[in-house]
Amino acid sequence: MVEKTKKILITGGRGMLGAALSKTLSSFYAITAIDKEECDITNAVAVKKFFSDKTFDAVVHCAAYTNVDKAEDEPELALLINAQGTQNLVTATCTHDCLFVHISTDYVFDGTKEAPYTEGDRPHPLSIYGATKLKGEYSVQTHPRGTIIRTSWLFGPGGNNFVRTILSLARQKDTLSVVNDQMGSPTYTMHLADALREILKIYFSKGLAYGVYHVTNSGVCSWYAFAREVVKNANLSTRVLPTTSAQYIRKAKRPQNSALSNEKFYALTGRYLPPWQTAVAQYMEKDMHE
Q: Going by CATH, does the domain composed of 7-161+186-217+258-274 fall within 2.40.30.70?
């Protein structure tokens, strides 16, 4: 096991993924988890000051503006956090001997591909959120040890997510209509955190090929199928009916297919993450109360 003397910084430490990552990594490494209160990443001076007397063996950048629809009304704020904030962190750490892991999104793609997207596919975001996350990726690509992890449809303890939303609605209504023409891979934050721990272990033990990796739970489904699985696991009698994205208008356009190929992650680690259905069941059975 890698010595716990290795120091890991997690940005967005009180967010859904940041909290899962802190919990997962704390047994293996010396963890520093920060949020805006400790360091405002949008303030270049504050970021430079924060790193002036600190060094880390790895930085895992989870902090982000993630409200996809609201970003259409707040493009400057989304850009400030997702692009400029990331650039500030890259600038402050690019001369340090540290791995820089950036959490990105399936929404950098336009969804026109029928097969799952690979790391080599060209991004073409449809939304402000996706565009700002892609600009953040471009910054990370200038870091000598920059590594981008794209994931999708996150759910987990300690945050608002699709599972909680569907459960709340299903307890109030007899029937739910959910979009059936957008495909992706629901991903459990605790499983993603475990995958990130494995990537760190590989980096510290034998080195890592820097670049882009797609990491999601296994399998692909629609939001409709995702909702049905949640209702089934909760043993509720609520009817879940399919609808189309054309009938369910939202401010930000979503990709119709944002499934990500996990083959590169498999080549690195020799494993896939569990099926998304297993992840939903585990979250609902064990971790939703947290």
A: no
